[in-house]
Design brief:
Blueprint (H helix, E strand, L loop, with lengths): L1 H14 L10 H33 L2
Length: 60
């Protein structure tokens, strides 16, 4: 479900015909979207690691 939502949002943003300012082109937009995606994945990975460590320590 999450992957489908991400694909839909990325496709919608990539296809949308929004006019950008003169100093902001598609490359900047793509770098921003990829940067946000990588940041979200990194945060979720850290939260998952924290949850696994916390669950492991509860059983000891």
């Amino acid at each position: 479900m999450f992957h489908q939502l991400c694909i839909f949002v990325f496709a919608f943003l990539a296809i949308s015909k929004v006019e950008a300012s003169s100093g902001y082109d598609f490359g900047d937009f793509l770098a921003t979207v990829l940067g946000i995606g990588i940041a979200v994945v990194g945060i979720l990975a850290c939260l998952g690691n924290y949850a696994r460590q916390k669950a492991r320590n509860e059983f000891i």
